[in-house]
Design a protein that fits this description.
The complex is a heterodimer of chains A (151) and B (72).
Chain A: H1 3-20, H2 23-26, H3 28-48, H4 50-58, H5 66-92, H6 95-99, H7 108-131, H8 133-144, H9 146-150
Helix pairs in contact in A: 1-3, 5-7
Chain B: H1 4-33, E1 42-45, E2 54-57
Antiparallel strand pairs in B: 1-2
The chains are: A mainly alpha (151), B alpha+beta (72).
Chain lengths: 151, 72
């Protein structure tokens, strides 16, 4: 996967997840289908960065510097929160449940879990974005100056 | 990339395992605490019964009708 593709994928995901945060911004049906559509790109994002994550995890105790270590902690928390918000999203869904022919009657606990994990996901996503800002801005600057690079 | 297949498999397994753990934990907690009845909108009248102005409030999260899954 090229660096350019990775940047567009990551920024697209970031924007989609922010827009999907509040169902009242998009309507409930679009909120639910947008999150379903984001699952595959999210998995691609994890796969693309998987080997780097394993390398940092392998050196976590002894040799990792502070920033990669913090990245790994935030990324792990974000992964768990992201999976939890998706699972709970399915459990409280209306549009998706209706499309699958399932009667939706979510319990109060699932709704509370979905609300909490959605907040946690967005908060961690912002931290994740900030921690990778140097990579994002560096790649964006490089892509914005193709003439200089080829000269 | 020779390791792509292995990486995809690892990520899928980790994701499914995490999803299963979340599902089991919440379902078990729901059972242990006693499942709340299917959440519907709790209609609270702002004022005496019969007044026109009413606000829909989700009993679980306190969110308003525009953002609450339970009432849409």
């Amino acid at each position: 996967m090229t660096t350019r593709s990775r940047l567009f994928l990551d920024l697209g995901l970031f924007g989609a997840l922010l827009v999907a945060y509040n169902p009242s911004w998009t309507g409930l049906a679009l909120h639910e289908w947008l999150c379903v559509a984001a699952i595959t790109p999210l998995l691609v994002h994890v796969v693309v960065n998987w080997e780097l994550t394993l390398r940092i995890a392998g050196r976590f105790v002894d040799h990792a510097r502070h920033l990669p270590r913090l990245n790994l902690i935030v990324d792990s928390a974000l992964f768990i929160a992201g999976v939890a918000v998706m699972v709970s999203g399915f459990m409280v869904s209306h549009a998706i449940a209706a499309a699958l022919g399932i009667a939706s009657a979510p319990s109060a606990l699932w709704i509370a879990v979905h609300s909490f994990t959605a907040d946690a996901t967005i908060a961690l996503l912002l931290v994740h974005f900030a921690l990778h800002w140097r990579w994002i801005s560096g790649v964006a600057r490089r892509l914005a100056r193709p003439a200089t690079r080829s000269a | 990339m020779p390791n792509t297949f292995r990486n995809v498999a690892a990520v899928l397994v980790l994701t499914l395992f995490t999803a299963l753990a979340v599902f089991a934990t919440v379902q078990l907690t729901d059972r242990l605490l006693g499942p709340a009845p299917a959440v519907a909108a709790q209609t609270t009248a702002s004022g005496a019964a019969g007044t026109a102005a009413q606000t829909l409030v989700c009993p679980a999260t306190g969110c308003t009708a525009s953002t609450c899954h339970a009432v849409q």
